[in-house]
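Format is chain and fold; as here:
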Amino acid sequence: MRRDSIFYKLFQQYPSLLFELLTNPPTNADTYRFDSVAVKEPKFEIDGVFLPPETEGAGIVYFCEVQFQKDEILYERVFAESSLYFYRNRARFSDWQAVIIYPSRNTEQSDIYPHRGLLNSDQVHRIYLDELGNIRQLPVWVALMVLTTLEESQAPEEARYLLTRTSEEIPSPSSRAIIEMITTIMVYKFEQLSRREVESMLGITLKETRVYREIKEEGREEGVEEATVNLVIRLLTKRFGELSVEIRASISALPLPVLENLSEALLDFTCLADLQGWLAAVKD
């Protein structure tokens, strides 16, 4: 299960979610922007960074690491990358803090003694999802994070509860985003099931998803399959620029069920090569 990509999607849709986990969040938490950054010489990329607004002068930059597997040199890497990025951008930021999210304490690096100063300070925040409390008592966005950690035997019931709670408490369009995130989490958790099977397990249908709603709007004047092709191509063009004639033809030739799968899969594509690989796999 690719939990890190799920968490980064959560942060992209709701950047202030990170600060709901902290005891003393910044007063301007709602204005932070979630992004990834790169540092050259030596070159490395930091996937989870919360950047303060540039219009308010120097602010605090927050580095976030989602760690669901044990890494015995995690803190060495996180602190080295964070410190170097802060050093290279010192004029822009007044301070840096790091947030490491674990499913439980068992996943944490064993030897933490060399980093005791930072780990025992208010500069580094370690979040253990299994210690946040009952999933039904948490804010919905935080509950989504905990949902990723549940066993398969427990997850469907809690996911259905969150769907019901979302429909009752959260207005659109936020409710639609949450419903789609719950579905995505469960698709990743139950990899042996198709998306339709997961939706059936959760008691929702394709008609409640974003892609279907957009298809329905376009389908008023054209067939559903043609509308789906146009929607998928439009979404891909927004992400990667103008598509080649060959790629457009390949997408247009896909049957409707495969097009629907592509409309969901493209959310995980990071470059055009991901699309090309997906289309090649389908063709094979």
